[in-house]
Structure formats: C-alpha cells, structure tokens
Design brief:
Oligomer: heterodimer
Strand content of chain A: 15-25%
Largest interface: A-B, 19 and 17 residues
Radius of gyration of chain A: 20 Å
Largest sheet of chain B: 7 strands, mixed
Largest sheet of chain A: 4 strands, mixed
Structural class of chain A: alpha/beta
C-alpha cells in the first residue's frame, strides 16, 4: 500500500475506471498523465490545493481512503475521511475518563513516560548519553497532578532539544524548538514531519471512533485536536524526529534546499518530494512489536494504538503506549 | 416496527461470537474482509425483491420477515411456496456442514413466518455455494428452543457490557472484525497486568 501525494498546485487528480489519473502540467504547457491503480493506494495527501474531481474524491472515500489537505508550507489543514466507526459508546467512555481525575492522570503519565522514553532513545543512539531524561522519566511517576506532569514533560523537551545542535551537525543551526513560523531549516523540517504525522494520527483516531477534540494531556481549547495530539506524543520521536535526523545526517536534505522569506523557512519543491518519500518509507518500515512480538509497520502501529486506547477506555484493558528500544 | 428488533443476520453473528455480535450490533462497527466481499458478491444474483413462478413453486425473493413475540426482524433470501407449504431459504457462500449460526438464522426466519401466517413450517433449506449443495434443516423442537434461547440471550447481552474475546483462534482468524476487536492483543495486555 502506498500514499498518493500531489504537491503541485496545478496538478489534477481524476478517476479513470478503477484507477486514479494524475495530470501534471509541463513547462511547455502540455499535460503529463500518469495512472495509479486505486486499489494500491491507501490515502491521498494534497499539498497547495491541487484540483481533485468529484469522481476521484468520492471514489477515494468509497474505497475507505482518507484525503488529507496540507498547505504548501506543509501545515495540516484538514481531511476528508471515509465513514467508519459509528461507535457512540466509545465517545461516552472517552468523556467519562476525561471527567475521572484518577484514570485521566494515569493515562497522561503513561503517555508522557513513553514520550520521554522514546526521546531518550533518540539521544542514546546518537551518542548523547549524558542527559537527564532517564531521571525525568522516573520523575513522572511521582507527580500528583496533570499540570505537574506537563511541567516534567516541558523540562524533558527542553533538555532533549538542547542536544539537537550536536546531533544535526555544524552545517545546521538549531537553538531549540520553535514554530509559527519555524525560524530555521531544522525547525521547519520538524514542523513538516509533525504535520504529516498528525494527518496519520487524525485518520486513525477517526476510524477508531474517538472524538479528536477531547484529550487528556492536551487541554480542550483553541479547537485543537487534543486526542490526536495526545496519541501523537508516543510517535513524535519514533517517527518524525528520527526521520528528520536521518535525512539530515544522510545529507538527503541540504541547507540550500530551503528558501528563506523574511526569516521563515520552507522546503523547496524537489526537497519536499524527497522528504515525502522518506516519510512514506518510514511509515512502511517494519519492526518487531515489543508487546505482541509480531512484525508491524509504523502505519499499522498508529492505528493499533488508537484502537488499543479505545479498548482501554471502553473495557479497561491496560493502555501501553508504543516504546521501542 | 421499532428498532429494538434484533436483525436476523446479527443472530448469526451472536452464535459465531458474542463479542462480534456486540461490536456489530451494539457498537455499530463493521469491516469487510474476503469472506464478506465474497458473500456479498454471491448475493448480487438474488438481491432483487419480487415473486417468481418456477413450475409448481412460487418463490418470494428477498422477503421481509419479523416476529413481535421474539422481537426479531430481517430479510430472508427467499421463501418457496409449494402445495401450501412455506420453505425459507438462505444462500451462504461456504461449504455445507452443521453451521449452527446459519441454522439459528434460518429457524428464526421460520418463527417469524409462522407468527405472521399462522401456518406451521417444518423445514427450511440452506444453499451452500462452495459445493453447490442444499442442506435441509428440520425445525425440530430442540432447534426452535435453542433459537429462541439465542434470541433472548442476544437481547440480554445487548444491554450489558461488551463480552470478552473468545478462545477460538480459527474463528478469530477468519473474522473481519479482528483488527477492531483485537482478541490476541487484549488478552495479552490483560495477562500482563494480572
């Protein structure tokens, strides 16, 4: 299964029998057309609003494919999602845990512990062994309120990103995480990776039947998809951060692949393609699941965690965020 | 008709696995796999409602049936009428064997027809497409009793918390809801915790 990315604003996606047709405008004004068998596509990601015909759009939904919209900067805008779960009781269970301080705190601790654990492993594998993240992880256990857990999370995040300058190398400048807008190339790449991840988690949350806007670690405000952000935490380091580090360390993306407009950085068209391919490859990477011991792609893992969270909320099955060694 | 009438197809699911029944009927989950798609494809030929005459036999296709006493309702693939005798008929994609879930579904349809028509129905038939055999299912007092009991249990279960996964690897492997129900994963996580 693969993801169909359209990144050119003047591209047209249409349906041709049981295939998608992508028409790309060439420099001489002619159109280059390519066909992709629809059954081999798992989702469609549109960047910079290319055109999609009604036929193609409906066909995607009929085949159970989400269609995600990203701005040309890579900001996540929203998705058209196929109808899936109609599980109203799961939402009720989700709201109940929101109102239950004990169960909620327990879940928040599990999420933040896993997040710090996965961050620690990124550092460890890049030879950044001298860091306090292990202590932060055990500090989470003793916290009494969600705000206190958030405090530890923030502390760990600062300490984690403080190691990044050494990991990305002298070619790049990284003075901590910033966004809206990202003021250096590394942050811009990281924001892009998180936006792509958010699309994946949003789709998983949706098909599971969870309410995307009610979360536990993230507050319900500003219309943020709190449940999506909660579930993203365990995957940020595993998927997005590792991917950013690997494209930088392998020089797949170079400093000249970015344009700077008044201090805000964005990826050039060709580099965007390279990064999207790398992200898709990462999503299809297999690992041995630490709990269930079967082979599993990151793509499946995201859906699995959303469903397991559902089982936790509805049946009290213990929730274990994904942590990899 | 009110919507707390149990659909006959879910009675089939109930006998297959109570958790599957709960996920489908109570929680509204669904998911296709090859078995479901094959079954749907098979029904393409017979999903036109209407009545046709074949020799002495009158065939009512895609017949709505319901029973107020047992609170079940559904659509039966066909009801054949010959010499004043009604014979409910179901099409299944699999092979002929003693599939109790199919028998329950068929028997429940017969109970519906009996309530509506006041006639007694002695047997029904299931056409198994995989080996193209018709199986005659006698509506014995025992089968009737088991069917009614299954209906009562299914109604009861729908008002209660979700049943735990069953211990039946084969059933789980061919179940389309496996990726939602997560029988293996749920058991593993619960074991680890205890």
């Amino acid at each position: 299964m693969s993801t169909l990315y359209l990144t050119q604003p003047d591209a047209v996606l249409s349906k041709d029998y049981e295939a998608f047709q992508v028409a790309l405008k060439q420099e001489d004004g002619s159109w280059k057309k390519q066909k992709v068998a629809a059954q081999t596509v798992e989702q469609v990601i549109l960047m910079g609003n290319p055109q999609v015909t009604g036929d193609a759009f409906v066909y995607a939904l009929q085949l159970g494919m989400p269609v995600h919209y990203l701005s040309s900067f890579g900001k996540y805008l929203g998705s058209a999602l196929p109808s899936h779960s109609r599980n109203g009781q799961l939402r009720l269970a989700q709201y109940q845990v929101y109102q239950d301080p004990v169960r909620r705190l327990e879940l928040v601790k599990a999420i933040v512990t896993a997040k710090i654990h996965n961050q620690y492993n990124v550092l460890y594998r890049h030879n950044e062994k001298d860091n306090p993240l292990k202590e932060r992880k055990s500090l989470v256990k003793t916290q009494q309120t969600i705000d206190q857990v958030r405090g530890v999370e923030g502390l760990a995040a600062r300490e984690y990103f403080a190691c990044w300058q050494r990991m990305v190398g002298n070619e790049w400048t990284f003075n901590g995480r910033n966004r809206r807008p990202p003021t250096d190339p590394v942050n811009s790449l990281m924001s892009f990776a998180y936006a792509l991840l958010q699309g994946q988690v949003m789709a998983a949350v949706h098909i599971t039947g969870l309410d995307p806007y009610i979360g536990y670690l993230h507050e319900v405000h500003h219309g943020q998809p709190a449940m999506v952000l909660d579930l993203m935490e365990e995957f940020r380091a595993l998927i997005a951060d590792n991917l950013v580090l690997s494209v930088l360390n392998n020089r797949k993306i170079q400093p000249e692949d970015f344009t700077d407009s008044l201090g805000a950085y964005r990826l050039k068209e060709n580099a965007k393609k390279i990064f999207l391919q790398a992200f898709d490859k990462k999503m299809n990477d297999e690992f041995k699941h630490p709990v269930f011991e079967y082979r599993c792609t990151y793509r499946r893992a995201i859906e699995l965690q959303a469903r397991l969270l559902g089982r936790h909320l509805q049946e009290g099955v213990p929730y274990k965020p994904l942590i990899l060694r | 008709m009110t919507n707390d009438y149990l659909p006959l197809a879910y009675l089939n699911a109930w006998e297959y696995c109570p958790r599957r029944f709960y996920l489908e009927y109570v929680l509204g989950e669904m998911e296709d796999n090859e078995h479901i798609i094959l079954g749907r494809h098979l029904h393409r030929n017979i999903d036109e409602p209407g009545t046709i005459q074949e020799g002495e036999t009158l065939i009512h296709q895609q017949q709505w049936v319901w029973c107020d006493r047992l609170k079940v309702a559904g659509i039966i693939d066909a009801v054949e009428e010959c010499d004043g005798q009604l014979v409910p008929l179901e099409y299944k994609k699999g092979k002929m064997a003693q599939h109790l879930n199919d028998h329950f579904q068929l028997c429940a349809a017969a109970l519906c027809l009996e309530e509506r028509t006041g006639r007694s129905i002695t047997y029904g038939e299931i056409f198994y497409h995989a080996n193209r055999r018709r199986q005659t299912v006698e509506f014995t007092p025992q089968l009737r009793q088991m069917t009614e009991q299954a209906i009562a249990l299914a109604h009861f279960a729908s008002q209660n918390p979700m049943p735990a996964p069953i211990e039946h690897t084969k059933k789980c492997q061919s179940c389309s809801l496996q990726g939602i129900c997560l029988p293996f994963e749920v058991k593993k996580l619960q074991q680890q915790n205890s």
